[in-house]
Hints:
Elements: H1 6-26, E1 54-65, E2 68-78, H2 81-86, E3 96-105, E4 120-130, E5 133-148, E6 154-162, E7 165-173, E8 178-184, H3 186-199, E9 217-229, E10 235-246, H4 249-254, E11 264-273, E12 283-291, E13 300-313, E14 319-327, E15 330-338, E16 343-350, H5 363-367, H6 383-392, H7 400-427, H8 438-466, H9 478-491, H10 498-502, H11 512-596
Antiparallel strand pairs: 1-2, 1-8, 2-3, 3-4, 4-5, 5-6, 6-7, 7-8, 9-10, 9-16, 10-11, 11-12, 12-13, 13-14, 14-15, 15-16
Helix pairs in contact: 6-7, 7-8, 7-9
Amino acid sequence: MSELPSADIDGAIEGGASSEKGDNNNNADAAPSLSIQPQTTKPPPTKLIPSGVVCLRGNLVQETRDSATVYRITGLWSLGLDKILADPENKIGLCSDFEYEHKTESSSDETTAVTFPPSGNYIGSFTINNAGVKTKVEEQDVLLNFVENNEGYHNVEGKGSNSFGKYTISGTLSTEGVITIYRHYPALVAQSTKTKKKDSVPQVKPPPTKLISTGVVCLRGKLVRNTVEGISLDKYCVHKITGMWSMGLDKILADPENTKGECNNFEYEHKASGGVTAFPLSGKYNGSFLVNAPHGGAKTKIEEKNVMLKFRENNEGYHNVEGKGSNVWGKYSITGTLTKDGEITLFRHYQSVKAQPKKAATPKQQKTPASKRQTIGSGTSTTASKLQNTHKSFTPSTNPNTAAGEYLLERFRILLSRLQTTTEILQNWPETQGDSAKIHNDTATELIASIRKIVTGLRAVERHVNGTGPSPAANIPAEALEKFRSSLDEKCPIPLDLLDLLDIGQPFGINPQCYARGLMKEAMRQLAGLERRKNALAILGSAIEKGLNERSSSSNDDTESAQESESATKVVTVSKRKRDEGDEIDVEDMSKKMRTD
């Protein structure tokens, strides 16, 4: 189609308009005398995006099935065109399969013949490799529109949706039938646009947070960002904090090498997608810190999960730190700073626990049985929380008579902390990221290590209570330890379980009435079992006696019948012998008579 000058187009439009107006005055059904087809200009080719966008690349072919013509697209998809081009045969496993189809009825009429490539609705699916297990995701009504560009091949435009959301499509189709299309999810674009608008609003930067020199738990270390990229599709970076903590910043500054041993190590880390380049990165951090043993033994590792850290730039050019967290000692808030060279200083402000006044127990209240034992993990006044409250006020005692009991409570607190950590690992099991199972391997390794710590804690309790094991239970005099174990034997002759051991009695028991009732219940159960055994033995003895009597009676009857049978045999024998003798006499008489004759 030849192009017209702009003046001619304007005149033609005006002429058509006036003609149409006159025709409308004369005859409403008459067509305009002049019509202009819209001018079309072929667009430039769509630019290819090398990475960062979901890309599908394959071949578009035409097939005939029965009486229908099928246009089929098959190929590979990945999280970037660069991954497909780097491994076109998918030997490393960075890509997955996809396919689309568009059916049209075959027709001999040339006017209704479908041009190639055909625009329209395509249906198909793609696979997701989830830790070696492939999942098929179906897609319906994927609209593809092919527009010829000014380079002689086609651009691809369209839209679609699947279980991950709605998206738009862009791409190209070469003259050889190689199709490359990209999925642009609008929700992500809208979110990023919203974020940009929010960030564009000017905000007043706060002053730097003041550092507290003493009296507050302080953590000081370095924040670094490490990038990890494996063979799988997932690529992530780790923001890690490592350093020392103490009961005040002054102790850390006075002894940065920890030669006096007043500080302990700690670490936190936060994993993020490899595409996130922000630093520092706010979010939930997981980690742990070490605690000295009460009597100079091995240090205890306290795990922490979901510690929230938020970094906010201050008016001095570095960052303030705010957040919150919790551990076995309770909930706390976080304040601190992060300098430009990555040095981070955090302060933990524990929430004060209001002490409730103790009510004097009346004699009636003392006789009232304790309520049912509350299980570990319940929301109110559990055995675990009591142990933790006991540990909050725990200080190593110089009295050897109570040091063994205090050490046992310390072992119980450590054991409950490890049980809580293991439960949190199971409750917060992460989801698979891409096609990699690395996160599951890491979490499983963490779970196994936590279970091993539980076993070690159980052995420590058993070693302290029973005296078994290769090493002493604690730095406690042997005489006091033996006296403590003897008292356990006297107060708990039949230890039912670990919780019963906690409730033995004063001064170390938590709920001795619970233990007394439990022990009485167990004794009654065992007595009932003995009574059942006694009745069963009586029934068994009666059955045995009855069997013996029946066997003796049967033996006597057999003896009498045997005697009768023997007597009858003798009678038959005598009769037969007499008959034989009589026969012999008759034979002799006959022979004598014959000789006489």
